[in-house]
Amino acid sequence: MNTSAALERFVSVYNEPGSPVYPLYADEVIWQERPGGRGGDRDALFTALRASREKWTATLESVSMEVDGDLGVLNSLWRAEPKSDPALQPVVSDLLWVFRFDAAGLITTEFDYSFRRAS
């Protein structure tokens, strides 16, 4: 498994319409989000991803990547436009992702750290 290629694949797939990233995850996943406080298993992560995609059209821009074995850190810029809720404003966040991958290149651990930029 090439961790750099797995990180690049994640960014590419995330930016596809509908963000079909679900097949990039292993059956068993540990997920935590900071500062949001959400976390849990694969089902909890997928529920959060679907809820986000219902509200936002988002893109992910890779700023930098660091790799050490099966561990990958993606420093990114996350831009989101509201889909239909006029009460929502566009969001730009610095988002740091920490992933662990299995031998097949599937994500087994995801920790997200987001820092919303001032508008």
Radius of gyration: 14 Å
Compute the number of helices.
2
The portion of residues forming beta strands comes to over 45%
Spatial strand arrangement across the major sheet: 2-1-6-5-4-3
Description:
The structure is a single chain. The chain has about 120 residues and is an alpha+beta fold. The protein has one domain: Nuclear Transport Factor 2, Chain: A (Roll). It is built from 2 helices and 6 strands; from the N terminus they run αββαββββ. It has helices at about 5-15, 40-55; strands at about 25-35, 40, 55-70, 70-80, 90-100, 105-115. Strands 2-1-6-5-4-3 form a 6-stranded mixed β-sheet, with helices on one face. The protein is globular, with a radius of gyration of 14 Å. The protein starts with a helix and ends with a strand. The model has no long low-confidence stretch (mean pLDDT about 95).
Question: Keywords, please?
Answer:
Nuclear Transport Factor 2, Chain: A; 6-stranded mixed sheet; 2 helices; alpha+beta; 119 residues
What topology does this entry show?
Elements: H1 3-14, E1 25-34, E2 39-40, H2 42-55, E3 56-68, E4 71-82, E5 91-101, E6 107-116
Parallel strand pairs: 1-6
Antiparallel strand pairs: 1-2, 3-4, 4-5, 5-6
Summarize the structure in short:
This protein is of the alpha+beta class and 119 residues long. The chain has helices at residues 3-14, 42-55; strands spanning 25-34, 39-40, 56-68, 71-82, 91-101, 107-116. It has two helices and six strands.
